[in-house]
Structure formats: structure tokens, C-alpha cells
Specification:
CATH class of the largest domain in chain B: Alpha Beta
Strand order of the largest sheet of chain A: 1-2-6-3-5-4
Number of strands of chain B: 17
Number of strands of chain A: 11
Structural class of chain A: alpha+beta
CATH class of the largest domain in chain A: Alpha Beta
Strand content of chain B: 15-25%
Distance between the termini of chain B: 60 Å
Largest interface: A-B, 68 and 61 residues
CATH architecture of the largest domain in chain A: 2-Layer Sandwich
Order of helices and strands of chain A: EEEHHEEHHHHHEHEEHHEEHHHHHE
CATH topology of the largest domain in chain A: Cytochrome Bc1 Complex, Chain A, domain 1
CATH topology of the largest domain in chain B: Cytochrome Bc1 Complex, Chain A, domain 1
Largest sheet of chain A: 6 strands, mixed
Strand order of the largest sheet of chain B: 1-2-3-11-4-10-9
Oligomer: heterodimer
Number of helices of chain B: 15
Radius of gyration of chain B: 22 Å
Structural class of chain B: alpha+beta
Number of domains of chain B: 2
Distance between the termini of chain A: 57 Å
Radius of gyration of chain A: 23 Å
Helix content of chain A: 40-55%
CATH superfamily of the largest domain in chain A: Metalloenzyme, LuxS/M16 peptidase-like
Chain lengths: 433, 422
Amino acid sequence: MHTVHTDNIFPGVELTCINTDKFKTGTLSINLVSNLNRETAAHTALLPRVLRRGSKDYPDMERISSALDELYGARIEPTIRKKGELHCIGFHVDFPDDRFIGSSGNLLEETATLAGGILLAPDLSGGLLRDDYVQSEKKNLIDDIRSIINDKRGYSVDRLLEEMCSGEAYSINRLGSETEALKITPQSLTECYLNMISEAKLEIYYCGTAKPEQVKSALQNALANLPQRNNLPKLGTEIILYPPSDAPKRVVETLDVTQGKLVAGFRLGKAMENNPDYPALMLFNAIYGSGVMSKLFLNVREKLALCYYASSSLDKHKGIMLVSSGVEYANFEVALKEILAQLDHVKNGDISDVEMNAAKGTITTSIKASMDRPAGLLELYFDGSVSAIQYDPEKLCEMIEAVSVDQIVNTAAEINTDTIYFLTGENDDGTRN
Amino acid sequence: MEHRQYPQIGEQLYIEKLANGLSIFAVPKAAYHKSFAFYAVDYGGVDRRFNLSGTWIDTPQGVAHFLEHEMFDMEYGDALTKLSSNGANPNAFTSSDITAYYFECTEKFDENLDTLLSFVSTPYFSDTSVVKEQGIIGQEIRMGEDDPDYNVYYNLMKSLFRHNPVRDSVAGTIESISQITPQTLYDCHKVFYHPSNMALCVSGNVDISQVIEIAERILPKDPGENPGRDYGQAEDLKPEEYKVIKAMEVSQPMFIAGCKSIPAPKGIATQRQDIISAIALDILAGHSSPLYIRLYGEGLVYSDFSASYDASADVAYTLFGGESSDPERVFDEVNKEIEKLSDTGPDSGLFQRTLKASIGSYVRSLNSLESICVGIANGHFLGFDALTGLDILKSIKEEEITNFYRSHLSPQNMAISIVVPK
């Protein structure tokens, strides 16, 4: 269905080219990858947004937007992601395939050139990134960090991670913290920029109909100003196998909400040692708490009708699982008990054929369905590149089909609760705020 | 079977109308791993009062959505479970206008389609299941009450509209759903869930003849009666209230401003209106519009600032919204820009550029099987072919854009809803 070709466009700069003619668009994903760091996270997060405001050739948003409109609505969108403890910033770029716009354009070359200019040729006329852009995007970043609280579900997950991983880079939000963001100046951000473009790992992905040589040549031209890459830092994620104590840490907070939130964080234990069995971990998560056939959905939501949602998610890079649920205050303890009881069922191998097959089907369908979206396809390969073990998506599907109950029991054996976070609308004495 | 080709966009569409009145649409894409089936009912949150065989029936707010949740219950258990255990990824939604059930899968498409068509055609409700669902949907409603987006939206709709059911939440209220009984659900299913009031769209790795065979085998033979619908007393264009402000636990103000207008007649006029409105609103408030760029530069709006036009239940409305430190100032600026554009029309260069960008975004939307199927089903219920969008786009004239500003965006028909931090 698609062919994959990897090549270096410059020494140390890898291009993964995925060729398929099934999409109507061409897509480029440009990523600068560094280790998440508390002091620099806000700077790093701010960079793509400041760069996107204007380059030497296209000095303001109006000119960039006009150029993109002329390229048939091509998009160059800043991306700020967190993969384990890696901070990945850059641009997601896409444009219609020349076949469908009735013009003999060179949308790949033209869009790549525009994106390359935004990344590598900002206006540094006074030696610094433009003060007005830095201040304006800094304010937006701070507003975004503050608005995390608007979504109580996401906020609760963030708070749990802050409590559970307080000494680990993993607790750093992908946007950084408000305190660090407030310290940003044009000087400090310019310094961060110059470091990033010479010292961060640069990974580029393409998906579309253009041949690998054509993509390589378009990118070599677009990124001709890229500084020589040297001293690339060692990238990685620290994995902690066990909670610090047998008794889970409990954190209770109150905010003005009508529905409470419960988030539980788990460490995966020996499952993360040596060569982690990713296919078994993915299946474990699907059986336990991800999707409508999972134990959490069927028991906590459907059978006991305790909440509107209850689901688990697992970060295989970091070795952490989270269970997140929206419940009435009165039901917190009942829901938590049921969440832990269902985990014990999986650990005991209480997994029916129906559950096993459903979980396998859910995961393989979701991997294959990702391959039907340009961004999903690129994400599969990018995710693989930052994993301890890399699999081709088709190969991963085969391995998932072959996982046994024993493998899952083995994987789940040492999954232990680390921290439990409750968000309620009540004070301790039971009165409402 | 009808076969339409669209060489410009590289797509083709097969259409079959069954004897029972069901329209089936297939857009094959052999290179995709997955297949997608979308089974939609022309019945949504606004369809609360309807006429069946001469009798008017009133139903509680939230029934269409409640029915959607309950449909998955079958004598054998849960249809959601059956689809999931067969490798499908199923889901459903209820909007103001339609209820839709769908799944994607990479194998056993025929079996899954059989399951989908069977459960949507089989009403199976009980007191127990209704009580259980009241618990689950009750939690969904409570979650909405905490959600500032939900509050800012429905506060606006209630300000704009006096009677029309678009002002009420699709999920209903804890009070309204408590009035629902198994009989309510049986009645609504009987009235709306019949083949001539539904559409089946499939795309991806699919074979239309198999789809037809399964649909003919499973679905009822009787086309059913198309119910009359009543959306209440006609609305004039004057909002009920001009401004509503609510304090919530948010980091900074968010707002939606809205303007009432008269919808285009059903059919190709609606399709054209949708396309004109999208271009007109891109020129007015899109990310390359002078207004957006100026307000963004001044720190008054963020990249979430957006505008949209929608028509439903005999009313039309244009919405502008996002977060802002000063929503009323943004509202003033939007109004000034509307006044200017109504007066002079769009800048020709900007119009041409926006047209190009719209062509690209239409082409991009065809990557998504979901977006294709949803577009075709909506188009079918409203009387147009969504895959002709590119031709229409290319034929849009500047005057039509100017006319949109004049006829759909009158300041006296606008209201604003704001959620402010506590």
C-alpha cells in the first residue's frame, strides 16, 4: 500500500519518505527533538510560534497567509509535542497534490521553501528575534498555560503527573510553566533558537506521491541554510519501575466543579525492563481500560453506571499508565475500588476470548486506520523513531495478533498504583464551595 | 444503479435507491485499509414536535440523543460490544439535525454492516435500560454544565432564539430526560427510523453490490410515513437578548457572537449558500483576513478565533467566537468589518486567493472517509450532491459574497454570549 524510504538529506538529518498515491495531499512533518527540560521547556515551546509570525522574506502573518492561500491553502502549522521525556517542536506542513488543482504547480517545492524560510531565516536584523513577535507570542503562551484549567479532565491529568513525577522531566507540560515563560526575553529566546537549530535532532517525514529523490532535493534547497549538526545530545526518557512507597500517595483538591474527577497513576514495574513487550502492553491497556470493550468501560461505566467516562492510557516510552474518570463526589471511593478490582482481574489472567479478540481487533484496526490518514501514518513512523524498539506498522499488527494471555499476565504483574488524584467541588466538611 | 464520476477530484459515487425508499451511496477507495459505514437518520435534537397520521406528538427535549444511546441495546446484549468484538470501531452521534451510527473496520465489513443495520432497525427498550441510561446521560449533562464551551454556546442560542428548538441542548436536561419512558422511545423510533427517512453511505475498501444485498436482506420492506415537523412559532430576526454574561472557572473570557438570518431553500441553493458563507467568512474573519491579522497582532484574539454559518430547523445563524481578553472590543471590530465589507465588497485579490485556498481545503477534505460520508448524507437530506462542491466553488462570484454580508450579517440581528472568569 505504501513504500518507505529513508535517507540523510544532510549529515545527521534524516528524511523518511512514505510514498502512496491514496491521499489528495502531500504532507511534511518537520521536527526538532530535544530532551524535556524544566528551565527551557517554555522557550522551546514558544519557538515555532514566534518563527511562524514572520521570516526575512515573508516578514508578517499577512504575507505568510497570502503566500499559503496562493499555494491552494497549503498549511504550515506549529507543532509542540511531548513523547516520553522528549520535547518535539516543529511544523506540520501540507498542500494539495498537484493532480487535483488543475495547475502544473510545484506545490511541494514552493511550500517546502516557505517552511524552510520560516524555520531557518527569521528576521534577526538587530541580532535578535523580533521583540514584538516574542512579546505577543509569549503572552499567548502564558494564556494557553493558564487555560489548561478550563478543561477539568486534562487539568486533572496534568495535576496527577505533577504530583506523581515531581522530580522527573515527565511532569513538565509540553508548553512549559508560567514561571519559566515569564522569564522569556528576545535575548534568551534567540539563544534558545540558535541552540536548537544546531543542536536538536532534526527529523523530517514526508507522505505523498513525489519520488524520494524529488523530496530530498526540495528539502536540500529549502534547508540549505541549516547549520552544520554537531554535538547532538543523547536523547532519552528516564524510566522508573516502581512507586516510591507501597501506600499510594493521595492528593485531593477542590475547584468549583459539579462533576468530580479521579485520576490514578501507575508504574509498570518489570514490564519496562530490558526489551519491553510493547505488543503485550498495548493489549493489556486495551483489555483493561481503553475502548468500549474494556473492563473499565463495561464495569465502571456500563454495569455500575458510576461515571460518564472511565478509561486508561499508557505511555510506552515512559512506562506509566493513567486511569481517568469523571464521577460524582459521593462515588469516588466506590469507583476507585472498582478501578483497582478490574486491574486485579487482568493481573489474574481473567481475560475471556471475547475480550482478547476484541482488544486485538481494536488495536490492529486503529493502527491500520491511522495508516489511512496522512498525519496518522507519519505519526506511526515518528513514534517508532523515539521508541526503544521500532516496528513497521504491519509487523506490529502481526505481533499483536500473536500475543497470549500469559504474555499479558506477565506484563501486568507489577503494575502498581503510585498516586491518586481527586478533584472535587466540596470542602472537606462536605459543604459546597 | 447510478454511477457518477468526478474526474477532477478523482472520485466516483455509486447510488442505489431500494424499493423501501432507502438511498445507498458508495465511494470506493481501494487503496484504503479500512472501510467506513455511516447510517444516518433525518432526525435530530430539534425534531421534538411532529405529526403522525394526523396527530401532533410532543416529546421531551433530549429524546433523539437518548434514543441513540438506547438503540445499542439488543435482546442479545449490547450491539456496541458485538461490533467491537468483531474488530470494528463503532460510534454514534446526535446533532440538531441528524442521528448517525457508524463504524470503521479493516476486516469483516459485511458482518459488521449486518450488525449495524440490524440494531438500528430493532427497537428493544425496557424500564431498566431507560433508568440506567438516565444515569449515564445525566452524567454527560453534568459534564456539559461544567464545560465553558457548552455554556457560552447555549447561552448564545438562548439569546438569539425565543422558541426555536435550536436554542436547547441536544442532550436535554436532567429534568427533561426523566420524562422519557420506553414508550416514548418506541414512538420516536417508529416515526423516524424508517428507510425513506434514512441514508446509508459507505466508503473505503467496499463493494456496493454486497452492501445492497445486505441492506435488502436486513431492512424493513415498508418505507414508512414521513412525519410532518413543527419547530414552533416562526422567529423574527430580532434576538431575544443582546448580551448574556456568565462567570465560570476559566482562565480568561471566551465568547460567541451570533447573527440570525433567513436560510436558503433546500436543494442546490443550500449547497451554494454553505459554500458562499464559508468563503465570505474566511474573507471576513479567517486566518488570512485583515481583521484576524490585526486583532491577533494586538493580542485581542488567538488562533482559536473562528466563524461559521449554519442552518437548521428553518433558521440560519452565523457565529463568531474564541477566547479574548476583551470580547466586546472584538465584537465591535467584527461589526465594523462587516459594515465595511457590506459597503465595498471584498478586496478582489483577497477574494481570488481565498477561492484558491478553499479549493485546496475541499480537496484535502476528500482524504477523510468520514468527511465524505457525512457530507453525502447531509447533502442527501438537504437535496444536493456534496461531491459537486469543487465545481460550485469555482463558480462563486464576488457579488454573491457581498450579498452574504448584506443579507446575513445585520448588526441589529446580532447577540453576544460571554463567559468570564470568576
